[in-house]
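Continued from yesterday's entry.
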Amino acid sequence: MATIQLTKIVAPSVWGWLGDRSGQRVKLVRFGAITGSLFFAGVFLEPGFYGLLLVMLAFTFFWNAILPLYEVITLRTLGSQRDRYGKVRLWGSVGFIASVAGVGGILEWVPVGTLPWLLLPVFAGIAVSAFLIPSERGEVRQSAPRGSLRKIVTHPSVVTFFLMNFLLQVSHGPYYTFFSIHLEQHGYGKLSTGLLWSLGVVAEIGLFLVMHRFTRRFTVRQIAIGALFLTMIRWLLIAEMTDFVVVLVFAQLLHAASYGALHAISVQYIQSFFGQHHHGQGQALYSGLTFGAGGAVGAWLSGFLVDGVSTSAAFLGGAVAMALAIVITWRGLRPPPGAQVAKPAYSSGSSSSSSS
């Protein structure tokens, strides 16, 4: 299972570079979906531990490449309406709920060994749906300015942006790793735990539906600081007030801020700052450095806190990470150059010319 995090750090950068270099992101998504599905089929060979490790490495190398490329394709397709990204992204959350409910229900009746057979048609469906997306036509590849990617990545605001998201995912380490265990220790049953997980995703969907209104009224910095503060409150509530159901429900509703709001503004921020030459690599760095490296570090550190103290201590550690992220974001996060006068990318529905 750790190979998923490993390839999530490496694979997006490789495929993002290929996408920026070739301009054929749709074709790369199709190739990744088909090849990833074929490698996943290796689980049916029952290859043993090391064989399964190789299957997971190969499968996830292609699989983790798809989402960052899809983000770029989606934003380019939306064009000047990119503030409506949330209305597209919410379907991923709907799919998550459907898979948890559907597959979970089926596994009540059939052995867990049938899980790969249930997943394979889903992977095949993703591969088929990739062919429903029109190919990118007429995209003229121009040479990017020499050294421009390094200049972007080392920009103080971009460094702040990645630090903010890295710490955000570090703080989510206890949540994704120990939330169910934490609830069990406080007397919650499996049904209650499942409903609380689902509630967080439902809140995320609701936020995606109205996110375009927030991006028109507030700057990315204002949204980021507000969402980070609410995320810190969320971890404090889960750590200290787990026994109060109403408080826990409220904490789960804050998933709309801790994931939905911050992810929505992040993908748009990358498009504005990295521009057309490096958009794919920007999304890849966002995926690898935050969801990959940040998630892995968060899970690792939370394990020490759980072993040494308690699950509540792990969530308090997440709150500390958020406090640090708030300070860093307050001091360093700024809009991309060229967007500071009118801020069209964040305060209105129009597109920013700074993306190029």
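--- second protein ---
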Amino acid sequence: MTTYAPASEQEATAIVAQAAGRSERLRLVGGNTKAAFGRPPQDEATLASTGLTGITLYEPAEMVVAARAGTPLAEVQALLAERGQMLPFEPIDHRPLLGSTGTPTFGAVAAVNNSGPRRINAGAARDSLIGVRFVNGRGEAIKSGGRVMKNVTGLDLVKLMAGSWGTLGLLTEVTFKVLPVQERAATLVLTGLDDAAAIEALSAALGSPFELTGAAHLPAGIGGPEARTLMRIEGFSKSVEYRLGELRRLLRRRGEATLIEGEDSAALWRAVRDATFLAEPREAAVWRISTVPGRGPEVTAAVARQRSARWFYDWGGGLIWLATDAAEDAGTAIVREAVRAAGGHATLVRAPETVRAAVPVFEPLPDPLMRLTTGIKAAHDPAGLFNPGRMYAGV
């Protein structure tokens, strides 16, 4: 299979225009760390952003960073760390879960709306994304957004590109707002709570004025023999100390909370972020389920009544990572019925290619939304060149 790796946006526009002329379908990739995510490829050539590298703008005082799409994510994060700054939304590293190699890229963060545990406080990647450059299916270079947040009328291409999984265009440059690294991060841990009690505790903490930046629950057997309910607080040291004390008082009837700090706390949240608790066994399918936080235990219980499964919760219970047997449909009918009853959506993150070809990987859309999705795809990629069928069959 041919691989194109343009070194400039101008070169990328020429490649896409030529591909459109011969109806050559293109698989868009960055570091190729998420190749096993989504429906199986239906393409004839690969278009990689790996030649589009370099940080193009960094203004620490304005808290804005821009880089070409193929720039390694780690390179951007290292530059930010030198100035005591960070990406707000704690992007996931999918490699542990998917068993992939390669290097995560800055553009892919925007392309998949990559957001981790801090989303409950700082929002998703799309909420910090303020500018994009991309090449559409006609081979045209498009710029949208800029260096500041602003309201827009009409179609917001910046937000549209976030989470489009390369189906609308090849991102060539992205711009994000950044935040200062916090002086102190600490995690309170309650042990022994069942799922329902843990979600109640997390809901109480999130509803308090003490500003959590992480809220997760690990049932017994997930990362340890005892169930652990995790609450992260970040900020200036004195503020963190005060809020920890207040949270202990708020939750005292739920048990004595222990405190984790430093690398132990950071490592625990990396494991939550990357879902490494479910990385093994490799043959298991893994679902990412978003639902109403208070109904998370209802969803997992409904699945567990019909199918062997393991799971943990993030986002105060609003995000469920669930592993189950990949046989047959990887529990698709059971999972989607449980989610339908509670409200939300489910994405099949990991499964054999045969399963991903046979079942909807992303949440099926109602007919009106599917017509809208198809129309947007046709407007930006009229020949259907980019990642055909990656998200939805025929789109």
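The mean pLDDT is 96. The two ends are 22 Å apart (CA to CA). Will compare against the first tomorrow.
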